[in-house]
Write a structure and sequence with these properties.
Length: 477
């Protein structure tokens, strides 16, 4: 069995290597025509793919998945279409440095059940733009819709002149085979979007990897904020596709002096605060107690479905369930990341305590990912931003759409959000085409006259300290 899997992996990678060799010969114009054709095909299929995703996974809202497909195609395309990713990309006659872009090689892309078609299409576009063949491993719960998204874009790319096998999808369901392909020596890079275990497997594969950790996004509402606006924005974000974006809000933190005002505003906008008894019931079905990980059975489900599963009664039309908590950690399961319309709610005595709570929540399971603040005090916004360990600090903006970028702000549109070293990633940026090229630097002779004209004998004189050497280095300049 193992031998047959190895042979299967070798066949897939051999095809990808041949595609890479052909891609290497393409110029920027042909590459861009291929990308444009793939983007148009994906965008035109946005509604059908959204409906397929919801039907297959049972997760989320098709209208919202349609918007995710728009982000993953049109917004991503618009952000990369004018980038130079082939051959000469810069030339500086002053420094004598010329930069040349080269593709990485076959990229292994893991896609999640929560955003299956949009993530696949986004990764396909940034790989085509950089002339990298892509091998997609779909979540077994979203295998059909992911494969269909890949097929649509592949056929369009082929018709525009792309190499055969530049897009491949491996069969879903075999973790051993996925890990085997992941660790294959011919893989250039892994783009892993999924659970913590999957991301760890990518980083331990022996190949370079860009993974995405959990979000557990805290949001601080300050007293200077426009509270009705803040609450409305949070609701629009957390209810978007039933909270399945990893950058969706997880906890709301306010100061005690505005707690009642914020609570009343949430209730006014059709959200429901759980009683202590109801919190316990929701905890049992929302979080796996042994691992403190979210239950897959409530991911992307509506507030009504979650309430029914928990055996509680909530008002008709409830958008979000809120649980007021007194602490963070294992004793408070809902303080962990839950990709569903459930929010933890905290009241702190002052803004220092509120920020400390945000930091605690951030370190509980979302280091390096995203955080949000609603305030009209620039000093406070910067204080919060410098203290929180997050790659994206979203200000007065829904965190789901805000962190993904391209709608409420000018962040690079992306469905893979780097979490920096805190989240065991190499970057805090929104991953795009520019992260998928190697840059060669052709360095022509340009003397550093400050150093070359210095009296080098002084460097051998122990009586010359850094002050003397500084003056020597700068003496003629």
């Amino acid at each position: 069995m193992a031998d047959s899997l190895i042979e299967k992996a070798d066949i897939i990678l051999d095809k990808a290597i041949f595609a890479a060799a052909e891609f290497q010969q393409f110029d920027q114009a042909l590459t861009d025509r291929i990308v444009e054709a793939a983007y148009k095909a994906g965008l035109n299929a946005r509604i059908r793919l959204a409906k397929m995703a919801v039907e297959e996974t049972g997760i989320g809202i098709w209208e919202h998945k349609m918007w995710k497909n728009v982000i993953g195609t049109q917004l991503v395309y618009e952000s990369i279409k004018n980038e130079r990713t082939v051959g000469l990309i810069s030339n500086d006659p002053v420094t004598g440095i010329t930069e040349i872009a080269q593709p990485l090689g076959p990229i292994f892309a893991v896609t999640p059940v929560t955003n299956p078609t949009s993530t696949a299409m986004y990764k396909i576009l940034i790989c085509l733009k950089t002339r990298n063949p892509i091998i997609i491993s779909a979540h077994r719960g979203a295998a059909k819709c992911t494969a269909e998204a890949a097929r649509i874009m592949y056929e369009a790319a082929l018709a525009a002149g792309a190499p055969e096998d530049c897009i491949q999808v491996i069969p879903a369901g075999s973790r051993d085979f996925t890990q085997m392909v992941m660790a294959h020596p011919k893989i250039a890079l892994i783009l892993a979007t999924g659970g913590t275990g999957l991301v760890k497997a990518a980083y331990s594969s022996g190949n370079p990897a860009i993974g995405v950790g959990p979000g557990n996004v805290p949001v601080f509402i300050d007293e200077t904020a426009d509270i009705p606006f803040a609450v409305s924005s949070i609701i629009s974000s957390k209810s978007f596709d039933n909270g399945t974006i990893c950058a969706s809000e997880q906890s709301i933190i306010v100061e005690e002096k505005i707690e009642q005002t914020v609570r009343e505003e949430f209730e006014k906008q059709h959200c429901y605060f759980l009683t202590p008894e109801e919190i316990k019931k929701v905890e049992k079905i929302a979080v796996v107690q042994e691992t403190m990980s979210m239950s897959p059975f409530i991911v992307g489900q509506s507030a009504a479905v979650i309430a029914q599963k928990a055996g509680i009664t909530i008002p008709e039309g409830t958008k979000i369930l809120l649980a007021k908590l007194d602490g963070v950690g294992k004793k408070y399961p809902l303080s962990h990341e839950v990709l569903a319309p459930i929010l933890a709610f905290y009241a702190a005595k002052d803004h220092n305590a509120a920020i400390n709570l945000c930091i605690d929540l951030n370190y509980l399971g979302g280091i390096g990912h995203s955080a949000g603040i609603y305030a009209n005090d620039e000093k406070l916004i910067m204080e919060f931003s410098q203290l929180i360990n997050a790659g994206r600090i979203v200000v007065n903006t829904p965190t789901s759409q805000g962190a993904v970028g391209g709608t409420f702000n000018l962040l690079t549109p992306s469905l893979t959000l780097g979490c920096g070293t805190g989240g065991k990633n190499i970057t805090t940026e929104n991953i795009s085409a520019r992260h998928l090229i190697n840059i060669q630097r052709v360095c022509r002779r340009r003397l550093n006259h400050k150093f070359m004209d210095a009296d080098h004998a002084k460097y051998f004189d122990e009586s010359c300290d850094e002050t003397v050497l500084f003056k020597e280095y700068h003496k003629n300049h």
